[in-house]
Amino acid sequence: MKQYEDFAKLLINPNGAAPIYNCLLNINNKKKNINYKIAVGQIDASDKKIASNYRFRTGSITKTFTSTIILQLMEEGLLKLEDPFLDCFENNETKKILSEILFFDEINYSSHITIQNLLQHKSGLRDYFADDERFFANIKKYPNQDWNWKNILEKYFEYNLNKKGVSKPSESFYYSDTNYLLLTILIEELTHKSYYEVLEERLLNTLSLNDTYLEFYQNKKSSTPIAFPYHGTYSLKKVNTSFDWGGGGLMSSASDLNIFIRSLLRGQLFQKVETLQLMMNFEDDNIDVPAKKGKIAYGMGLQQKKIGKHKLIGHNSAYGGMVFYNLETDSSFILNINQVLAPHKAEWLLKKMVETFFS
Questions:
Q1: Do residues 317 and 24 lie in contact, with contact meaning Cβ atoms separated by under 8 Å?
Q2: Among residues 118, 128, 186, 127, which one has the least CA distance to residue 152?
Q3: Based on the structure, what is the number of domains in the chain?
Q4: CATH number for 93
Q5: pTM, two decimal places
Q6: Proportion of the chain in helix, strand, coil states, percent, rounded to 5
Q7: pLDDT tens digits, one per residue of 220-269
Q8: Which of 322, 320, 282 is nearest to 304 (CA)?
Q9: DSSP string computed for 72-89
Q10: Is residue 170 a part of any domain in this protein?
Q11: Could you tell me the CA-to-CA distances from 157 to 102, 174, 179, 180, 277 in Å, in that order?
Q12: How far apart are CA 349 and CA 61, in angstroms?
Protein backbone atom coordinates (compact mmCIF):
# COMPACT_ATOMS: atom_id res chain seq x y z
CA MET A 1 0.00 0.00 0.00
CA LYS A 2 2.89 2.35 0.75
CA GLN A 3 4.11 2.15 -2.86
CA TYR A 4 0.80 3.55 -4.10
CA GLU A 5 0.86 6.31 -1.52
CA ASP A 6 4.37 7.24 -2.62
CA PHE A 7 3.27 7.48 -6.27
CA ALA A 8 0.39 9.73 -5.26
CA LYS A 9 2.65 11.93 -3.15
CA LEU A 10 4.90 12.52 -6.17
CA LEU A 11 2.00 14.30 -7.88
CA ILE A 12 1.14 16.62 -5.00
CA ASN A 13 2.34 20.12 -5.80
CA PRO A 14 0.32 23.14 -4.60
CA ASN A 15 2.42 25.50 -6.70
CA GLY A 16 2.71 26.36 -10.38
CA ALA A 17 0.20 26.86 -13.19
CA ALA A 18 -1.63 23.56 -12.56
CA PRO A 19 -1.46 22.78 -8.83
CA ILE A 20 -2.45 19.34 -7.60
CA TYR A 21 -3.62 19.57 -4.00
CA ASN A 22 -4.90 16.05 -3.49
CA CYS A 23 -5.06 12.54 -4.82
CA LEU A 24 -7.55 9.76 -4.09
CA LEU A 25 -6.90 6.10 -4.94
CA ASN A 26 -8.97 2.94 -4.60
CA ILE A 27 -7.61 -0.48 -5.58
CA ASN A 28 -9.81 -3.52 -5.17
CA ASN A 29 -9.38 -7.25 -5.72
CA LYS A 30 -11.69 -9.45 -3.66
CA LYS A 31 -9.86 -12.72 -4.37
CA LYS A 32 -6.69 -11.27 -2.87
CA ASN A 33 -8.67 -9.50 -0.13
CA ILE A 34 -7.32 -6.15 -1.34
CA ASN A 35 -9.28 -2.96 -0.79
CA TYR A 36 -6.85 -0.07 -0.61
CA LYS A 37 -8.36 3.34 0.08
CA ILE A 38 -5.71 6.02 -0.14
CA ALA A 39 -5.95 9.78 0.32
CA VAL A 40 -2.99 12.12 -0.02
CA GLY A 41 -2.80 15.91 0.28
CA GLN A 42 -5.24 18.64 1.27
CA ILE A 43 -8.65 19.58 -0.09
CA ASP A 44 -7.50 22.91 -1.60
CA ALA A 45 -5.18 25.83 -0.82
CA SER A 46 -6.15 25.52 2.84
CA ASP A 47 -4.35 23.14 5.19
CA LYS A 48 -7.32 20.82 5.68
CA LYS A 49 -6.32 17.25 4.87
CA ILE A 50 -8.36 15.13 2.51
CA ALA A 51 -9.73 11.71 3.50
CA SER A 52 -10.46 8.65 1.35
CA ASN A 53 -14.25 9.05 1.67
CA TYR A 54 -14.32 12.51 0.06
CA ARG A 55 -16.58 12.97 -2.94
CA PHE A 56 -15.57 14.63 -6.19
CA ARG A 57 -17.00 15.62 -9.56
CA THR A 58 -16.79 12.60 -11.82
CA GLY A 59 -16.88 14.45 -15.14
CA SER A 60 -17.13 12.15 -18.15
CA ILE A 61 -17.27 9.01 -16.03
CA THR A 62 -20.97 10.00 -15.94
CA LYS A 63 -21.17 8.95 -19.60
CA THR A 64 -20.90 5.31 -18.56
CA PHE A 65 -23.97 5.70 -16.33
CA THR A 66 -25.87 7.33 -19.20
CA SER A 67 -24.91 4.67 -21.75
CA THR A 68 -25.92 1.96 -19.28
CA ILE A 69 -29.41 3.45 -19.01
CA ILE A 70 -29.74 3.75 -22.79
CA LEU A 71 -28.84 0.07 -23.20
CA GLN A 72 -31.32 -0.90 -20.46
CA LEU A 73 -34.02 0.96 -22.39
CA MET A 74 -32.96 -0.94 -25.51
CA GLU A 75 -33.39 -4.25 -23.67
CA GLU A 76 -36.88 -3.14 -22.66
CA GLY A 77 -37.84 -2.44 -26.27
CA LEU A 78 -38.10 1.35 -25.94
CA LEU A 79 -35.47 1.96 -28.61
CA LYS A 80 -33.23 0.28 -31.16
CA LEU A 81 -29.62 1.33 -31.55
CA GLU A 82 -30.02 1.67 -35.30
CA ASP A 83 -32.94 4.09 -34.88
CA PRO A 84 -32.35 7.66 -36.06
CA PHE A 85 -32.42 9.50 -32.74
CA LEU A 86 -34.83 12.15 -34.08
CA ASP A 87 -37.45 9.46 -34.76
CA CYS A 88 -37.69 8.78 -31.02
CA PHE A 89 -39.11 12.22 -30.22
CA GLU A 90 -42.84 12.82 -30.10
CA ASN A 91 -42.44 16.37 -28.81
CA ASN A 92 -42.49 18.51 -31.95
CA GLU A 93 -40.82 21.49 -30.26
CA THR A 94 -37.87 19.35 -29.16
CA LYS A 95 -37.70 17.68 -32.55
CA LYS A 96 -37.64 21.04 -34.30
CA ILE A 97 -34.72 22.28 -32.16
CA LEU A 98 -32.72 19.11 -32.80
CA SER A 99 -33.51 18.82 -36.50
CA GLU A 100 -30.66 21.16 -37.43
CA ILE A 101 -28.04 19.81 -35.05
CA LEU A 102 -25.62 18.60 -37.77
CA PHE A 103 -24.57 20.09 -41.08
CA PHE A 104 -21.58 18.76 -43.01
CA ASP A 105 -20.49 20.33 -46.29
CA GLU A 106 -23.63 22.50 -46.01
CA ILE A 107 -25.92 19.44 -46.06
CA ASN A 108 -28.21 18.67 -43.10
CA TYR A 109 -27.43 15.18 -41.77
CA SER A 110 -29.33 15.52 -38.48
CA SER A 111 -31.89 12.86 -39.42
CA HIS A 112 -29.10 10.39 -40.24
CA ILE A 113 -27.67 10.27 -36.71
CA THR A 114 -28.50 6.99 -34.96
CA ILE A 115 -28.55 6.27 -31.25
CA GLN A 116 -25.53 4.03 -31.74
CA ASN A 117 -23.67 6.92 -33.39
CA LEU A 118 -24.25 9.01 -30.27
CA LEU A 119 -23.11 6.24 -27.92
CA GLN A 120 -19.91 5.65 -29.90
CA HIS A 121 -19.10 9.32 -30.65
CA LYS A 122 -19.57 8.69 -34.36
CA SER A 123 -22.29 11.26 -35.04
CA GLY A 124 -20.03 13.89 -36.60
CA LEU A 125 -21.22 16.44 -34.02
CA ARG A 126 -18.99 19.14 -32.60
CA ASP A 127 -18.41 19.40 -28.84
CA TYR A 128 -20.47 22.23 -27.34
CA PHE A 129 -17.96 22.65 -24.50
CA ALA A 130 -14.54 22.07 -26.09
CA ASP A 131 -14.91 23.27 -29.67
CA ASP A 132 -15.44 26.97 -29.00
CA GLU A 133 -13.52 28.74 -26.25
CA ARG A 134 -16.38 31.19 -25.77
CA PHE A 135 -18.37 28.56 -23.87
CA PHE A 136 -15.82 28.26 -21.05
CA ALA A 137 -15.25 32.02 -21.11
CA ASN A 138 -19.00 32.45 -20.57
CA ILE A 139 -18.90 30.00 -17.65
CA LYS A 140 -16.11 31.96 -15.96
CA LYS A 141 -17.96 35.23 -16.55
CA TYR A 142 -21.27 33.89 -15.21
CA PRO A 143 -20.26 31.07 -12.81
CA ASN A 144 -23.67 30.91 -11.12
CA GLN A 145 -25.70 30.41 -14.28
CA ASP A 146 -28.06 27.46 -14.27
CA TRP A 147 -27.85 25.35 -17.40
CA ASN A 148 -30.33 23.10 -19.15
CA TRP A 149 -30.21 21.41 -22.52
CA LYS A 150 -32.05 24.27 -24.24
CA ASN A 151 -29.70 27.06 -23.21
CA ILE A 152 -26.69 24.80 -23.88
CA LEU A 153 -27.92 24.27 -27.43
CA GLU A 154 -28.61 27.99 -27.78
CA LYS A 155 -24.86 28.49 -27.39
CA TYR A 156 -24.19 25.59 -29.76
CA PHE A 157 -26.25 27.24 -32.47
CA GLU A 158 -25.02 30.74 -31.61
CA TYR A 159 -21.44 29.59 -32.20
CA ASN A 160 -22.55 27.88 -35.45
CA LEU A 161 -21.15 24.56 -34.27
CA ASN A 162 -24.07 22.81 -35.95
CA LYS A 163 -22.81 24.15 -39.28
CA LYS A 164 -19.26 22.86 -38.67
CA GLY A 165 -19.83 19.11 -38.49
CA VAL A 166 -16.73 16.93 -38.29
CA SER A 167 -18.10 14.35 -40.73
CA LYS A 168 -21.23 12.57 -41.88
CA PRO A 169 -22.68 10.21 -39.23
CA SER A 170 -20.86 6.84 -38.94
CA GLU A 171 -17.83 8.06 -40.90
CA SER A 172 -15.42 8.92 -38.10
CA PHE A 173 -14.86 8.99 -34.35
CA TYR A 174 -14.91 12.39 -32.66
CA TYR A 175 -15.27 12.61 -28.89
CA SER A 176 -18.03 15.12 -28.22
CA ASP A 177 -20.08 15.95 -25.13
CA THR A 178 -22.92 16.89 -27.47
CA ASN A 179 -23.54 13.18 -28.13
CA TYR A 180 -24.31 12.51 -24.47
CA LEU A 181 -26.32 15.69 -24.11
CA LEU A 182 -28.64 14.31 -26.81
CA LEU A 183 -28.73 10.86 -25.20
CA THR A 184 -29.79 12.43 -21.90
CA ILE A 185 -32.57 14.37 -23.63
CA LEU A 186 -33.62 11.07 -25.20
CA ILE A 187 -33.75 9.31 -21.81
CA GLU A 188 -36.13 11.97 -20.51
CA GLU A 189 -38.26 11.75 -23.67
CA LEU A 190 -38.62 7.96 -23.52
CA THR A 191 -39.18 7.63 -19.77
CA HIS A 192 -41.23 10.82 -19.22
CA LYS A 193 -39.08 11.43 -16.16
CA SER A 194 -36.17 13.69 -15.34
CA TYR A 195 -32.71 12.24 -15.92
CA TYR A 196 -31.86 12.29 -12.21
CA GLU A 197 -35.05 10.36 -11.38
CA VAL A 198 -34.10 7.68 -13.90
CA LEU A 199 -30.58 7.54 -12.48
CA GLU A 200 -31.98 7.10 -8.98
CA GLU A 201 -34.40 4.34 -9.95
CA ARG A 202 -32.15 2.32 -12.23
CA LEU A 203 -28.65 2.70 -10.80
CA LEU A 204 -28.15 4.76 -7.66
CA ASN A 205 -30.81 3.15 -5.49
CA THR A 206 -30.32 -0.30 -7.01
CA LEU A 207 -26.62 -0.31 -6.14
CA SER A 208 -26.97 1.72 -2.90
CA LEU A 209 -24.66 4.43 -4.23
CA ASN A 210 -25.36 6.70 -1.30
CA ASP A 211 -22.63 9.23 -2.06
CA THR A 212 -23.61 9.69 -5.71
CA TYR A 213 -26.01 12.33 -7.02
CA LEU A 214 -26.51 14.62 -10.02
CA GLU A 215 -25.05 17.91 -8.85
CA PHE A 216 -27.23 21.02 -9.31
CA TYR A 217 -30.22 18.83 -10.20
CA GLN A 218 -30.53 16.94 -6.90
CA ASN A 219 -29.96 17.75 -3.26
CA LYS A 220 -26.87 16.25 -1.65
CA LYS A 221 -27.68 12.74 -0.49
CA SER A 222 -25.32 12.70 2.47
CA SER A 223 -23.00 14.88 4.52
CA THR A 224 -19.86 13.31 3.03
CA PRO A 225 -17.45 16.19 2.27
CA ILE A 226 -16.40 17.22 -1.24
CA ALA A 227 -13.05 18.10 -2.81
CA PHE A 228 -13.58 20.34 -5.84
CA PRO A 229 -11.47 20.41 -9.02
CA TYR A 230 -9.25 23.14 -10.42
CA HIS A 231 -8.76 24.40 -13.95
CA GLY A 232 -5.16 25.52 -13.59
CA THR A 233 -5.18 27.87 -10.59
CA TYR A 234 -8.90 28.58 -11.04
CA SER A 235 -11.05 26.74 -8.50
CA LEU A 236 -14.28 25.32 -9.91
CA LYS A 237 -15.85 25.08 -6.45
CA LYS A 238 -18.26 27.96 -7.01
CA VAL A 239 -18.86 27.25 -10.70
CA ASN A 240 -22.27 25.87 -11.60
CA THR A 241 -21.39 22.89 -13.79
CA SER A 242 -24.97 21.90 -14.57
CA PHE A 243 -23.96 22.09 -18.26
CA ASP A 244 -22.25 18.70 -17.76
CA TRP A 245 -25.58 16.92 -17.04
CA GLY A 246 -25.67 13.36 -18.43
CA GLY A 247 -22.22 13.73 -19.96
CA GLY A 248 -20.38 14.67 -16.80
CA GLY A 249 -22.56 15.96 -13.97
CA LEU A 250 -22.37 13.27 -11.30
CA MET A 251 -20.81 13.80 -7.90
CA SER A 252 -19.52 10.55 -6.39
CA SER A 253 -16.85 8.85 -4.30
CA ALA A 254 -14.15 6.32 -5.13
CA SER A 255 -16.05 3.65 -3.17
CA ASP A 256 -19.31 4.24 -5.05
CA LEU A 257 -17.55 4.24 -8.41
CA ASN A 258 -15.87 0.96 -7.50
CA ILE A 259 -19.28 -0.59 -6.82
CA PHE A 260 -20.69 0.74 -10.08
CA ILE A 261 -17.90 -0.33 -12.44
CA ARG A 262 -17.75 -3.81 -10.89
CA SER A 263 -21.52 -4.28 -11.07
CA LEU A 264 -21.60 -3.11 -14.67
CA LEU A 265 -18.70 -5.12 -16.05
CA ARG A 266 -19.67 -8.28 -14.17
CA GLY A 267 -23.00 -8.19 -15.99
CA GLN A 268 -25.28 -7.30 -13.09
CA LEU A 269 -26.99 -4.29 -14.70
CA PHE A 270 -28.34 -5.90 -17.87
CA GLN A 271 -30.81 -8.67 -18.58
CA LYS A 272 -28.64 -10.23 -21.28
CA VAL A 273 -24.93 -10.99 -21.55
CA GLU A 274 -25.06 -9.83 -25.16
CA THR A 275 -25.89 -6.27 -24.08
CA LEU A 276 -22.67 -5.95 -22.10
CA GLN A 277 -20.73 -7.48 -24.99
CA LEU A 278 -22.25 -4.88 -27.28
CA MET A 279 -21.26 -2.10 -24.90
CA MET A 280 -17.69 -3.44 -24.83
CA ASN A 281 -17.32 -3.73 -28.60
CA PHE A 282 -13.97 -2.04 -29.20
CA GLU A 283 -13.73 -3.08 -32.86
CA ASP A 284 -12.25 0.31 -33.79
CA ASP A 285 -9.27 -0.18 -31.50
CA ASN A 286 -6.83 2.73 -31.37
CA ILE A 287 -8.94 5.26 -33.22
CA ASP A 288 -7.04 8.39 -34.10
CA VAL A 289 -8.61 11.26 -32.18
CA PRO A 290 -8.21 14.81 -33.51
CA ALA A 291 -6.06 17.49 -31.91
CA LYS A 292 -4.37 16.66 -28.61
CA LYS A 293 -6.49 13.70 -27.61
CA GLY A 294 -4.18 11.03 -29.04
CA LYS A 295 -5.51 7.50 -29.58
CA ILE A 296 -8.46 5.89 -27.88
CA ALA A 297 -10.38 2.61 -28.03
CA TYR A 298 -14.05 3.41 -27.43
CA GLY A 299 -17.15 1.23 -27.18
CA MET A 300 -20.50 2.57 -25.97
CA GLY A 301 -19.72 4.84 -23.04
CA LEU A 302 -16.66 2.74 -22.23
CA GLN A 303 -12.97 3.09 -23.04
CA GLN A 304 -10.37 0.38 -23.25
CA LYS A 305 -6.74 0.90 -22.26
CA LYS A 306 -3.84 -1.52 -22.39
CA ILE A 307 -1.07 -1.24 -19.81
CA GLY A 308 1.55 -3.89 -20.43
CA LYS A 309 -0.38 -7.06 -21.22
CA HIS A 310 -3.37 -6.03 -19.13
CA LYS A 311 -6.57 -4.66 -20.67
CA LEU A 312 -8.55 -2.18 -18.61
CA ILE A 313 -12.12 -1.11 -19.29
CA GLY A 314 -13.80 1.99 -17.88
CA HIS A 315 -13.74 5.74 -18.43
CA ASN A 316 -11.71 8.80 -17.56
CA SER A 317 -12.63 12.36 -16.67
CA ALA A 318 -11.44 15.83 -17.64
CA TYR A 319 -11.15 16.55 -13.91
CA GLY A 320 -8.31 14.04 -13.57
CA GLY A 321 -10.44 11.06 -12.58
CA MET A 322 -10.22 7.46 -13.81
CA VAL A 323 -12.32 4.36 -13.19
CA PHE A 324 -11.00 1.14 -14.75
CA TYR A 325 -11.51 -2.59 -14.31
CA ASN A 326 -9.56 -5.66 -15.40
CA LEU A 327 -11.96 -8.47 -16.25
CA GLU A 328 -9.42 -11.30 -16.16
CA THR A 329 -8.33 -10.68 -12.57
CA ASP A 330 -11.44 -8.98 -11.15
CA SER A 331 -9.37 -5.92 -10.23
CA SER A 332 -10.52 -2.30 -10.16
CA PHE A 333 -8.50 0.92 -10.14
CA ILE A 334 -10.04 4.30 -9.28
CA LEU A 335 -8.18 7.59 -8.96
CA ASN A 336 -8.81 11.32 -8.93
CA ILE A 337 -6.38 14.27 -8.88
CA ASN A 338 -8.86 17.17 -9.25
CA GLN A 339 -6.88 19.08 -11.90
CA VAL A 340 -8.19 19.65 -15.43
CA LEU A 341 -4.81 20.64 -16.86
CA ALA A 342 -2.91 17.51 -15.78
CA PRO A 343 -4.42 14.54 -17.67
CA HIS A 344 -0.93 13.19 -18.39
CA LYS A 345 -0.30 12.96 -14.65
CA ALA A 346 -3.50 11.01 -14.08
CA GLU A 347 -2.47 8.65 -16.90
CA TRP A 348 0.97 8.25 -15.33
CA LEU A 349 -0.54 7.42 -11.96
CA LEU A 350 -2.89 4.80 -13.43
CA LYS A 351 0.05 3.21 -15.25
CA LYS A 352 2.09 3.06 -12.05
CA MET A 353 -0.85 1.61 -10.09
CA VAL A 354 -1.46 -1.14 -12.64
CA GLU A 355 2.21 -2.01 -13.18
CA THR A 356 2.81 -2.24 -9.43
CA PHE A 357 -0.32 -4.28 -8.80
CA PHE A 358 0.59 -6.91 -11.39
CA SER A 359 4.34 -6.98 -10.68
A1: no
A2: 128
A3: 1
A4: 3.40.710.10
A5: 0.96
A6: 35, 20, 40
A7: 878 999 999 999 999 999 999 999 999 999 999 999 999 999 999 999 99
A8: 282
A9: HHHHTTS--TTSBGGGG-
A10: yes
A11: 10, 19, 15, 17, 36
A12: 17
